[in-house]
Amino acid sequence: xxxxxxxxxxxxxxxxxxxxxxxxxxxxxxxxxxxxxxxxxxxxxxxxxxxxxxxxxxxxxxx
Length: 63
Description:
Blueprint: H1 8-24, H2 27-31, H3 47-50
């Protein structure tokens, strides 16, 4: 029997910790001592920012 590189329980624990951090933030973020980087204007990057702009005209096929 070969031992896999990632143990099932270890992987589940790591995923739970990652979900906890994503949901509630890090200790620094929770305490309010977290400072945004210099020059930060407050725009949060969302999934909508990654979507390409819709095209107004369909692309022409090359001859």
